[in-house]
Design a protein that fits this description.
The protein is mainly alpha-helical. The chain has one domain: Up-down Bundle (Growth Hormone, Chain: A), CATH 1.20.1250.20. The chain contains 19 helices and no strands. The radius of gyration is 22 Å and the shape is globular. The N terminus is likely disordered.
């Protein structure tokens, strides 16, 4: 965070106190001093970082290896894993509706609190159901069904709020600091993941009441952290969508008051945005052909213990943590598209590296750790630069509509990939999981061709 702090401080006159309550909405008609904006946004970025840390604790148990292990313990089929991965992406179809509704509210903060608050509270139903399953006679199949229902409705509500939140943060983060800020923010989340995943894995595998009940207890704790994280958003500058939107980032770079931004053209007329949608949809389809099944392959096919698999996830998070700051600084210097093209090739061949893995000693203690470290380092660049490139392509004015369209298209493509992957994985004549991994690599390389035609706006 030091580099972001220094860059911001360069533009701030000494002796200006920070705003005590930046949650107060900034009106487009009042045009307060740019120095007030700078201090308020600095506090907003710090609050957003804390929010990401606590949200990571929540997401550790509501997705990833712990949720996958929970379903493996319930004897879920590969098709269930495909559905589990496709639901969060498929419900992104509701994001345009969420963007429409959010643009008719008067507070980004209140809308975010409503949608994400209820979304996270829904997981209490599953936590209580797991903990009390042995007392009330809930079967494994019923728990699987309950899990899918909670995932569905939780992500539906999250989909209603995602575009609004992304539009909110896009207006708060200065354009020239996006690489470094999101690099630091994602590093903080990766560090949290690095520390908490193995602890949660140990707690689940060694819980005296069994792994299922242990997962329920850990899930309950993570829900608490997720709700506290939402409270951190109170300290971010609120935005009223009913007012003409302002480029707060430009305020940090100039001493001028902020002009209103012109209304953007329809996204149907934005050829560069449409090219980005083509790349993004192909990429999401190809990635999710295999991504949901790596954990399943380790837990089911290789029969590895959950604590060992969570250790691999920690190594991946550690590599992600170490590389994010580097990728963030590099993206600010050379742009996001060159990094996406170069690192995209490495990410494309990653599924092929799984083809020779078995359950022998060398693979478990050398090859799998190295593979997860490699994955963490490369995906750090892909996630960061894809997000930054999308923020640069769309207009800040009514940007939530653009973000919603991108999420909907990417979500449908990703869900389609996960569904197709879950179907193909069940048939040996298609090569099973290993054949699926090879197909995913080929499709990823095809997606990168579409990225060549996307133009990145001036940095």
């Amino acid at each position: 965070m030091d580099s972001v702090q220094i860059e911001t401080d360069k533009l701030i006159t000494l002796g200006i106190p920070q705003i005590a309550t930046p949650q107060t909405a900034i009106s487009a008609t009042s045009k307060p001093s740019p120095l007030i904006y700078k201090n308020a946004i600095r506090t907003s970025l710090q609050a957003s970082t804390v929010d990401s840390i606590l949200a990571t604790v929540f997401s550790i148990t509501t997705g990833g290896i712990l949720l996958s292990n929970f379903l493996v313990e319930l004897d879920a089929s590969p098709m269930i894993f495909g559905m589990l991965s496709s639901i969060p992406m498929l419900v992104n179809l509701i994001q345009p509706l969420g963007a429409y509704l959010s643009e008719r509210t008067t507070s980004r903060f209140q809308y975010s609190l409503l949608t994400f608050g209820i979304s996270r509270l829904l997981w209490l139903i599953l936590a209580i159901g797991i903990i009390s399953a042995s007392w009330i006679g809930v079967t494994s199949q019923q728990l699987v069904t309950l899990t899918l229902l909670v995932v569905l409705f939780s992500h539906l509500l999250g989909g209603l709020g995602s575009a609004s939140w992304l539009s909110w943060i896009a207006m708060l983060v200065p354009r020239r600091l996006r690489g470094r800020y999101f690099g630091f923010r994602n590093s903080a989340a990766s560090l949290t993941n690095l520390l908490c995943v193995p602890l949660a894995g140990l707690a689940v595998s060694h819980w005296y009441g069994g792994t299922l009940q242990g997962y329920g207890v850990v899930l309950l704790i993570s829900i608490f952290f997720g709700l506290v994280g939402l409270g951190c958003q109170y300290f971010k500058v609120d935005v009223n969508p009913q007012m003409p939107n302002l480029d707060f980032g430009k305020c940090l770079q100039t001493s001028e008051t902020l002009p209103d931004l012109p209304s953007p053209p329809s996204f149907w007329k934005d050829s560069n945005f449409l090219k980005f949608l083509l790349y993004f949809s192909l990429w999401m389809l190809s990635v999710n052909l295999s991504a949901p099944f790596f954990n399943f392959y380790m837990l089911e096919t290789l029969n590895l213990d959950v604590s060992l698999v969570t250790s691999y996830s920690s190594l991946q998070a550690g590599a992600n943590l170490l590389m994010l700051i580097l990728w963030g600084k590099l993206a600010d210097k050379i742009g996001n598209r060159p990094i996406l093209l170069m690192l995209g090739i490495l990410v494309a061949i990653t599924p092929v590296l799984w083809l020779g893995i078995s359950g022998n000693y060398l693979d478990i203690w050398l090859w799998l750790p190295l593979l997860h470290i490699f994955t963490g380092g490369t995906w750090a660049a892909i996630d960061l630069c894809t997000n930054n490139m999308q923020l640069g392509i769309v207009s800040l004015t009514n940007g939530s509509i653009y973000f919603a369209i991108a999420a909907a298209v990417g979500g449908v493509s990703g869900a389609l990939g996960a569904t197709i992957g879950g179907f193909l994985a069940q048939f040996a004549q298609f090569g099973g999981l290993l054949g699926l991994f090879a197909l995913s690599s080929l499709m990823r390389l095809v997606a990168l061709v579409a990225l060549i035609f996307v133009q990145e706006p001036q940095r």
